[in-house]
Design a protein that fits this description.
heterodimer, A: mainly alpha, MetI-like fold, globular, B: alpha+beta, Rossmann fold, OB fold (Dihydrolipoamide Acetyltransferase, E2P), 2 domains, 6-stranded mixed sheet, 5-stranded antiparallel sheet, elongated, binds adenosine-5'-triphosphate, binds magnesium ion
């Protein structure tokens, strides 16, 4: 805002702080809950101050898991989630960036058809095509495997449009200068296009990493072997203890741990991420 | 270094019209050729066909003895300077200069030598390690020139390289481009729509109109003997006066005045008379063969005055030295060799 009115500023800040509190409070409760012994919840009142069981709860979840709920140690599941999110993010970016390159810079037959075929994949997220996809993956013997976890989710070029827009903003003269400088298509792609889309790639990576990390339905469906469980899909299992009340302190510890990697990715790539979203100069 | 030969070159854009028609030019080794013409006349198209960025619909383009119609731009041994410079934004100036050489597999030591040499010539040594966005427009322009120089090409191709600079910088860069080209002795084709730039830079000018050549010649030839009314109006500032006149019985009549002019025989009927504002000389009295200008208004440009008026109902401009008094009426005289006669229909030169 260009205007500088003290009371308006104060109002803005008030609204922002309120927003942050509303968003942050549940996270705070989860964090606090994860530091108490299981007995702390039997009274029905959720404690608001940290307890002393933090180390015990977290190391229990990381190391041995919750056998009553059939949940393996979190460490393994976090690794699974990490593999899944990384493969999906890099795979989707690789596919999108190359298909955008083909669509923007090459004149080939059926170019329009290819473009619209990609467009159609936008309308078919996993949830829509989940039954046929499951059938295909099962027939290919990819249940309970990393390939089964990732390939069906990679197979859509949703980000192609983003890269197409990015490439279209690169002036024709730059392409022509590169042509005169003797850069063939692949060299042009590697030396000019990729560096120029660097910030966009970073922004997209953050978004897709979180997309992959937060996958719930698909991993739940195709993993029956505990060694391929992912964190987010398993939280439900943790809360579903069969014979006793859920151990909220441990569930919350798992929730906090599941939240950590995406937060780290966002914080770590924040500068590039924001630049990728707002930068227009080419 | 090489000559460039265009032989009946034509370009038809798919879905568009005929952008260039039947252009034949022989550019000598080391020559500075300027393509000039109004917007949309096909200058860039022609240049881009030489560069290989546009396919050639008809005719042939040869660089040296080699016909290059189907040769890739990188293999044509040319370098191009673009209007918006087209520097790679993510590379430093040094990398920008070196990129083309690197792609050709030039040894690193040789690249370094050429980059340093170009940097010295263009005085861009101080910002070799900066990115283009940290440079001013003039500096970017120099870097773009540098990128062309390091390749040591057979020909430079310029597409309005100065039009993004302010007037003063344009003037000094113009001089520098000229000096540099002479010093390197590299053949150059330069596209501009600015007739002054064209006049000052060119060894030879090519005036284009609607995708066709109107005239080829040295700047002075084009200025002194414009081949058509189009060229006459386009080259020179202020533009040449073009007014209707009559030829009857071997004498020229304009605005009711008979003008002495050795006319080629066989001319009769209406013609277009061209006379440059600077070729009109004021006379004290209306005498035989003197034109009478009814003055409308005067523009003072400092060094000279532009007098606007009418002769026999037709608008006419004449330049006078500063301080020359102007009344309502001005008697003007022009030497016979300063009068140009053009065909009324086709606009072709008659004399
Ligand atoms: N890619 C294209 N497809 C179709 N027509 C085109 C294309 N490029 C240029 N033209 C047309 O060809 C003609 C010549 O264009 P060109 O760019 O060569 O003009 P120019 O002389 O360089 O003009 P300017 O001084 O404005 O740059 C114009 O009528 C233009 O509309
Ligand atoms: Mg042009």
């Amino acid at each position: 805002m260009v205007e500088d009115r003290p009371w308006l500023n104060r109002l803005t800040h008030l609204v922002l702080i309120l927003g942050v509190l509303i968003v942050a409070f549940p996270v705070y409760v989860a964090l606090i809950a994860s530091t108490h012994p299981a007995t702390a919840f039997s009274t029905g009142v959720i404690p608001l101050w940290p307890g002393d069981q933090m180390w015990e709860n977290y190391s229990l979840m990381m190391g041995s898991g919750l056998s009553t709920a059939g949940a393996p140690p979190l460490a393994g599941m976090i690794l699974n989630s990490l593999i899944m999110a990384l493969v999906i993010a890099t795979g989707k970016i690789a596919i999108s960036v190359t298909s955008a390159f083909a669509i923007v810079y090459f004149r080939f037959r059926f170019r329009q058809l290819a473009f619209w075929a990609i467009f159609v994949t936008l309308m078919l997220p996993v949830e829509v095509r989940i039954v046929p996809t499951f059938k295909v993956v099962a027939d290919l013997g990819m249940l309970n495997s990393y390939a089964g976890l990732t390939v069906p989710l990679i197979a859509s070029a949703t980000a192609t449009f983003l890269f197409r827009q990015v490439f279209l903003t690169i002036p024709d003269e730059l392409t022509e200068a590169a042509r005169i400088d003797g850069a063939g298509p692949m060299k042009f792609f590697r030396d000019i296009l990729l560096p120029l889309s660097q910030t966009n790639i970073a922004a997209l990576f953050v978004i897709l990493f979180i997309y992959g990390w937060n996958q719930y339905l698909w991993p739940l469906l195709i993993t029956t072997d505990a060694s391929y469980y992912t964190v987010v899909a398993s939280i439900k299992r943790l809360a579903q203890a069969v014979d006793s009340v859920p151990q909220w302190n441990l569930v919350m510890a798992a929730v906090i741990l599941a939240m950590l990697p995406p937060v780290l990715v966002v914080v770590g790539m924040q500068r590039l991420f924001v630049k990728g979203l707002v930068e227009t100069e080419k | 270094m090489a000559s460039i030969t265009l032989d009946r070159v034509g370009k038809t854009y798919p879905g568009g019209g005929q952008a260039v028609t039947d252009v034949s030019i022989r550019i000598a080794d080391g020559e500075f050729l300027v393509l000039v013409g109004p917007s949309g006349c096909g200058k860039s198209t022609l240049l881009r066909m030489v560069a290989g960025l546009e396919t050639i619909s008809t005719g042939t383009v040869a660089i040296g003895d080699r016909v290059v119609n189907t040769v890739e731009p990188a293999d044509r041994d040319i370098a191009m300077v673009f209007q918006n410079y087209a520097l790679y934004p993510h590379m430093t100036v040094r990398q920008n200069l070196a990129y083309g050489l690197k792609n050709r597999g030039t040894p690193a030591a040789e690249i370094a030598r050429r980059v340093d040499e170009a940097a010295a010539i263009l005085e861009i040594g101080a910002f070799l390690d900066r990115k283009p966005r940290a440079l001013s427009g003039g500096q970017r322009q120099r870097v773009a020139m540098g990128r062309a120089i390091v390749r040591e090409p057979a020909a430079f191709l310029f597409d309005e390289p100065l039009s993004n600079l302010d007037a003063k910088l344009r003037l000094s860069m113009r001089g520098e481009i000229r000096l540099l080209q002479k010093r390197l002795g590299t053949t150059a084709i330069y596209v501009t729509h600015d007739q002054l730039e064209a006049m000052t830079l060119a060894d030879r000018l090519v005036v284009l109109n609607g995708g066709r050549i109107e005239q080829i010649g040295t700047p002075m030839e084009v200025y002194r003997r414009p081949a058509t009314t189009f060229v006459a109006a386009f080259i020179g500032s202020p533009a040449m006066n073009l007014i209707p006149a009559q030829i009857a019985d071997g004498a020229l009549t304009v605005g009711g005045v008979r003008v002495q002019l050795p006319l080629p025989s066989g001319l009769d009927g209406p013609v277009t008379l061209g006379v440059r504002p600077e070729d009109l000389q004021p006379r004290r009295n209306g005498g035989d063969g003197h034109l009478t200008l009814d003055v409308s208004y005067v523009e003072d440009l400092g060094a000279q005055r532009l007098v606007h008026g009418r002769i026999g109902g037709h608008a006419m401009v004449c330049t006078l030295p500063a301080g020359h008094a102007v009344q309502d009426r001005l008697f003007l005289h022009a030497d016979a060799d300063a009068l140009h006669l053009f065909d009324v229909q086709g606009g072709r030169r008659l004399t």
